[in-house]
Amino acid sequence: MKHVTVFCASSPKVNQTYINEAASLAEELVRNNYGIVYGGGALGLMGSLANRALELNGTVKGIIPHFMVEVEWEHKGVKDMVHVNDMAERKKMLVDEGDIIVVLPGGIGTYEELFEVLSLKKLGQIQHPIIIVNTNGYFNHLIKALETMIDEDFMRQEHKSLWHVANSSSDVCKAIDNIPAWSEDAIKFAAVK
């Protein structure tokens, strides 16, 4: 079984559309026999993702730092829960445990996770497909910023292949099947020359 690492928000205050999209992603992944690895939270998109996957008897693994457990952010229904020391260890394990990375809308934590994996992939340190789910055009400005980096020669044209944009969760598994492989030799064209 391949595993999909999902980065997403934990805020329960966001528009219900985003929370529903997380549940839809869980349905799509479970239906296509992917395991889910996520940040271990019980609320917001995180909670919706885990709850729906568990309802469907999907495989869910959570990874959460001790301080979040202490403030009771941990999802109690996820049996495969790993406690780590800090955010850096959590992020490394989230990347290491997944074969594919899917990014749903989120705040600065989600953005930070996305930019780290984009950077690692650009440097050939990971080869994971990275899929950004652009629910309601949430990531439009971010995608434009990434394209501007390329247009202004801060990255190469080849780097447009670092990520793939899906308009909804229903497009994610099709995208996984169609994303071209990324080479560990990517570091050869990581620098802009």
TrEMBL record:
The keyword Hydrolase applies. This is Cytokinin riboside 5'-monophosphate phosphoribohydrolase. It comes from the Bacteria. Its EC number is 3.2.2.n1. Keywords: Cytokinin biosynthesis, Hydrolase. It catalyses: AMP + H2O = D-ribose 5-phosphate + adenine. It holds the Pfam family Lysine_decarbox. NCBIfam families: Rossman fold protein, TIGR00730 family. Belongs to the LOG family. InterPro entries: LOG, LOG_fam.
